Amino acid sequence: MAISLSVVLLLAIIMVVLMRSGSLKAGPALVAVLFGFFLASTGIAPSINRFLDSLAESINQITF
Questions:
Q1: DSSP secondary structure of 9-51
Q2: ∠ at Cα 32 (43, 56), nearest 5°?
Q3: What pLDDT, in 10s, does the model give residues 1-35?
Q4: In 3-state terms, what secondary structure has residue 23?
Q5: What local confidence, expressed as pLDDT, does residue 3 receive?
Q6: Which residue among 11, 24, 51, 60 is buried most deeply as judged by most CB within 10 Å?
Q7: CB count, 10 Å around CB of 8?
Q8: Do residues 4 and 49 make contact, with C-beta atoms less than 8 angstroms apart?
Q9: Do the Cβ atoms of 24 and 15 come closer than 8 Å?
Q10: HSE of 62 in the Cβ direction (CA atoms, 13 Å)?
Q11: 10-20: burial string, b at 16+ Cβ within 10 Å, e else
């Protein structure tokens, strides 16, 4: 839950920055948000969640 919330906030911040800089217009941003919303209710959503969880675990295991 904490990871998915962080990803949502990060993507929202990126989208706002792109919209304010003029790189992303409101229409395509709305389409992207709606696409993500409807994609979350499909059968592929668990696979995407597992992939993002494994990616977060991999990043977490990196030591410097």
A1: HHHHHHHHHHHHHTSS-HHHHHHHHHHHHHHTTSTTHHHHHHH
A2: 60
A3: 456 667 778 888 888 888 899 888 888 888 888 88
A4: coil
A5: 60
A6: 24
A7: 11
A8: yes
A9: yes
A10: 6
A11: eeeeeeeeeee
Q: Could you tell me how far CA 60 lies from the centroid of its own chain?
A: 18
- Residue 58, pLDDT above cutoff 90: yes
In the numeric block, which tokens belong to residue 26? 């409101």
Question: For residue 52, what are its two tokens?
Answer: 């993002």
Give the Å distances, CA to CA, from 24 to 5, 6, 12, 18: 23, 22, 13, 5
**pLDDT attached to residue 54:** 92
Token digits of residue 51:
């992939």
Which tokens hold the place of 18? 């792109």
